[in-house]
Amino acid sequence: MNNRIVVIGAGIAGVATAHRLAVDHGAEVTIVDPRPPLTLTSDKSTECYRNWWPNQPMVGLMNRSIDLLEEMSERSRNVFGLSRRGYLFVTSREDTLSSWQEQASAISSYGAGAVRIHDEPARYRPASPHGYQNEPDGIDLFTTAESLRQPFPYVSAEAVGAMHVRRAGWFSAQQLGSWMLDQAKEAGTIHLVDEVVDIEVAAGAVVGVRLASGERIGCSAVVNAAGPLAADVAKLVELELPLRSEVHLKVAFRDHLGVIPRDAPMLIWSDPQHLDWDEEERAVLTEAGRSDVLGEMPVYCHGRPEGGAESPYFLGLWEYHGEVRQPVWPVPEDDLYPEVVARGLSTMIPGFGRYLDRLPQSNVDGGYYTKTPDNRPLIGPAGPAGFHLACGYSGFGVMVASGAADLVSKHLTSGPLPDYADAFLLTRYDNPRYLESVSKADSGQL
């Protein structure tokens, strides 16, 4: 029997899976992708991570993933720059602040860490601008405007409180992915620039794949880590996946005025808002058919510093499109995106309003959040024996990839499964009660 494992997809999901299988389990692995590694969606990431999620399986999976990120940081001498400045959720609404106090208790009980409540700033411990070691977990909940503004004076005077999630930060996903791929190749992994066009199944089990080049690879298992193309790959074994793809953009601003401190955390405005267009601008936007930016805008306009202490760049993100579509490349553009995000950010960071008369130099890119109805990934066996899923990573691919690779590897090698394993199987959608609960649950998406 051929024990080779074929991983379809060389994005962060596939590379992490190959690395885990080859380096930690000694498996014979071949990665197949017609594109260069880490280029379809992985290089469009915001490159962030957090363990603060509204359900126990996601907290468990993310904690494991972050554990592995920290282990790899030690092994690689932190070649990918893992940091832990956290996520700062900010609100101007007392009802939101109250709901956070209730939510914090539940998420803490899932294993996300302790809750520290501050009505004055004296006991708050700021995050280190570098590294991740010896930082607290859990959250710091600022319940008064005064307690918030001492450590974060650049935040709006309208803010009444905030929630600083501490086991969170960012890193270079490209550097991590490159390091994992190099390690996997050293352990014997083969990387083919080709496309899987057929998956051979005999007696209900995977036995090989055929490539566009005409080559056949015999194997005992296939991992579908094809990102936005995962549903198409699954159809090769007559399997339908409950996936949809949403367009998500991000913009890099050159903050040449130094409005936002370089040691700032991820900053997230957690309230709906209306943008302050003047009458002439509203008329032009109406004529252009851009009603999507004229009414109430959604929550979670957010961003973070990008690069080192000397870098002037700030990444801004705001998903206000809600556009679900079949993935196409290049990703559809939105010429208004930099201005809309800049206006949204200035609600949370008034100093950013200095750019509204003349926007700073900016660059927009983006990709797809390919997600399930419950915004949880698909990890583990599905369809014929030997076919496994490592997909549906939505907007959290770089943060979940290591933990998901660990989980799918345990399935493939018959290792002991963690208690959250069943929560990520495709079979969860066979449960009508679960399907009913999905529509009522908070997905945790920013």
Textual characterization of the structure:
- The protein has 446 residues and is an alpha/beta fold.
- The chain folds into 2 domains: 180 residues, FAD/NAD(P)-binding domain (3-Layer(bba) Sandwich), CATH 3.50.50; 210 residues, D-Amino Acid Oxidase, subunit A, domain 2 (D-Amino Acid Oxidase, Chain A, domain 2, 2-Layer Sandwich), CATH 3.30.9.
- A 9-stranded mixed beta sheet has the order 5-6-7-4-15-16-17-14-18, sandwiched between helices. Strands 9-2-1-13-20-19 form a 6-stranded mixed beta sheet. Strands 10-11-12 form a 3-stranded antiparallel beta sheet, with no helix packed on it.
- Helix 1 crosses helix 9 and helix 2 packs across helix 3.
- The model has no long low-confidence stretch (mean pLDDT 96).
Short description:
With 446 residues, this protein is an alpha/beta fold. It folds into two domains: 5-47 and 173-242 and 372-438, 3-Layer(bba) Sandwich (FAD/NAD(P)-binding domain), CATH 3.50.50; 87-170 and 244-369, D-Amino Acid Oxidase, Chain A, domain 2, CATH 3.30.9.
